[in-house]
Amino acid sequence: MNTATQVQEPSQRTTISPRLAKNYRRNITERIIEFLLMLCALSAVFTTIAIVVILVYESYSFFEHVSVFDFLTDPQWTPLFEDAHYGIMPLVSGTLTISFVALAFAVPVGTIAAIYLSEFASHKTRETVKPILELLAGVPTIAFGYFALLLVTPLLQMVFPDLPTFNMLGPGIVIGIMVVPYIASVSEDAMRAVPMSMREGAYAMGATRFQTAMRVVTPAAISGIVAAYILAISRAIGETMVVAIAAGQQPNLTFNPMDSAATITAYIVQVAMGDLPHGSIGYQSIFAAGLVLMLMTLFFNVLGHFTRKKFREAY
Amino acid sequence: MGTASTLENIDAVRAMIKRAKLKDHIFGLVGLVCIMLILLTLLILFVDLVVDGYPKLFSADFYSNFPSRRAAKAGLLSALVGSSLVMLVTFVSAVPMGVGAAIYLEEYAPKNWFTEIIEVNVTNLAAVPSIIYGLLALGLFVYTLDFGNSILTAGLTLGLLILPVVIVATREAIRAIPIAIREAAYAVGATKGQVVGQHVVRYSAGGILTGVIIGMARAIGETAPVITIGALTFIAFLPESPVSSTPPFINFEWLTSGFTVLPIQMFSWLSRPSSSFHVNAAAAGAIIILVTLLMNGIAIKMRYNIRKKIKWQ
After folding, report:
1. How far apart are CA B239 and CA B146, in angstroms?
2. What is residue B236's predicted lDDT score, i.e. its pLDDT?
3. Through-space distance between the first and last CA atoms of chain B, rounded to whole angstroms
């Protein structure tokens, strides 16, 4: 009896083991799948780390040659000239001026469009316009560059005959057109999130649509709308092709939109189009400029993120 | 006396209502003008490119010629081939990675600080200016990994660029699938991998596809990062063909080849002082815009249909 069970046991084990083995294999496969998927997700983290490491590393070499003080205070940016100056201010002033022009155009148009779509338009109009806004947002920036150089600037020159071919006004307006869909759709989402009961309250008091939109819906959605503006600034700052084509290549410390001036992005493109040797100070300078650009957009992105978060908590 | 003042009041109130209603109408009109302005811009942009590029758009030579110093002879051939090959690399690199990341975040990731970090990164990457990706690629792919300014570098760069687009769209599609579908699959003994692979991914395929199309449309038109990695503008040769008639039929030599893409070709024509090249630029722009509008249009339409059709009940 005793010996029988002892003989039995191993044979039982062999009858069970294929299932166990299958389960084991299944578990291993599951683990491998999960691990591979996690690697995919980690690619986002790796990309961020790689961006930071590369920008900081190359900028570090740059700042071994150029003092941070000069970088921030020198009024000239001429890294490729014999008499090299490395002051980031002219590039920053160009970037900010163009972004300001863009926002001055996009904020009123985008906000009015959002209020109209959210509070005035019929369901059918909204369902037609929103996809078109999305289409406009998908148009490649290079096409807008063509638009700025060969259509908008000549039109502006009819109004302002002194306007040079390369100027900041035309590209600014075109970037404004580019970010209108963004402002409109994000603000509209914020307005649609305002509870219907608030509108009904206003209507019950005898308010018109316009009064409801201006005094009830817009104030209630204001943090979402402001977040849209802030994120639009970040986009305008990072916009490259329109300014590289239509704003000129000459760094120029000015806030006058009628002048021509290079932006941070335009400078990077200009250097990349040339043939600068790897490791030269000119090559490193685009990473320093890129670092400044990254910090500027990061600032606005974080600001926009927190503004929007505040808005989400409101209801 | 009393009745007179009430009447006067009523008139005043009526005048006020009239003014308020007038404002209503005026704003309605202004809003309509703003919307029209946006729509017209899109139309003008497209029509302007087509009209300016008209002489080139319908000539077969334009599509079969290499770039040339003479505007009349300059064509798009190398840019068309370059764009297609770069898109192939972008597709192969971004789609599996993006879909995988989205599946992990939606189905596997535990709710902890680690997942939070990944999520913050994805959101942040979507807002990084495209030219920064160009700098990343210049430092990482071109010099550190020594891929040079090749099709491989450009494809991988654009792949990283559209990764957030694919991830966000896939997550949205996966989230739309009700938990009951997963529970049913678990109930009959499916493992998590089987639930995800045979049910979740399959039912969200339409939504994933729209995200992929929108991402690819963005990659086709993207210029700045490709310029930054040093794409050449004057390419008078074609890369090695990826498929050949002799074994092993497929080769990868084209990956390391120099290249140009449509938007770069357009930029180079546009930045020439001579306006005779502007016709070529307009024609190239018309093609780019047509392709991207078409792709985005299809994706938007698809998403609309999916939302309308699927009711999980």
Report:
1. 19
2. 64
3. 68
Tokens of A256: 């006058």
Helices marked H in B104-221: 113-126, 130-137, 151-175, 179-187, 192-195, 201-203, 205-221
Residues of B in contact with A174 (CB under 8 A): none
Domain parsing of chain A, residue ranges = 2-65, 89-313
Number of domains in chain B: 2
Average pLDDT over residues B54-64: 72
With a pLDDT cut of 90, the percent of chain B lying above it is: 10
The count of C-alpha atoms lying within 13 angstroms of the C-alpha of A259, restricted to the half-sphere facing its C-beta, is 16
B56-79 burial, b for 16+ CB within 10 Å, e for fewer?
bbeeeebeebbbeeebeebbbbbb
Q: Which of residues 232-251 of B touch A (CB under 8 A)?
A: none
- CB-CB: which of A44, A140, A287 is closest to B101? A44
Tell me if chain A has a CB within 8 Å of the CB of B222. Answer: yes
CA within 13 Å, CB half, A186: 25
∠ CA A300-A259-A80 to the nearest 5 degrees? Answer: 80
**Res. A12: pLDDT tops 70:** no
What does the angle CA B37 – CA B40 – CA B45 come to, to the nearest 5 degrees?
A: 125
Q: Is there a contact between A260 and A98 (Cβ–Cβ < 8 Å)?
A: no
Residue B280 domain boundaries: 60-309
Based on the domain organization, do B10 and B113 belong to the same domain?
no
Asked if the model's pLDDT at residue A105 lies above 70, the reply is yes
Protein fold of A89-313:
MetI-like fold (1.10.3720)
Same domain, B16 and B155: no
Confidence of residue B100 (pLDDT cuts 50, 70, 90): very high
Give pTM, 2 decimals. 0.84
Do B4 and B87 fall into the same domain? Answer: no
A309: closest CA of chain B, how far (Å): 13
- Together in a domain, B245 and B302: yes
Amino acid letter for position B183: E
How many angstroms separate the CA atoms of B102 and B107, rounded? 8
B150-201 pLDDT, tens per residue?
Answer: 888 888 999 999 999 899 989 988 888 888 888 999 999 888 888 888 888 8
- Based on the domain organization, do B182 and B258 belong to the same domain? yes
In this prediction, what percent of chain A has a pLDDT beyond 70? Answer: 93
Q: What is the mean pLDDT of chain A?
A: 83
Residues B21 and B67 in one domain: no
Please judge whether A142 and B160 are an interchain contact, meaning their C-beta atoms are less than 8 angstroms apart. no
ipTM of the complex: 0.84
CA–CA separation, A238 and A241 (whole Å): 10
**CATH classification at residue B215:** 1.10.3720.10
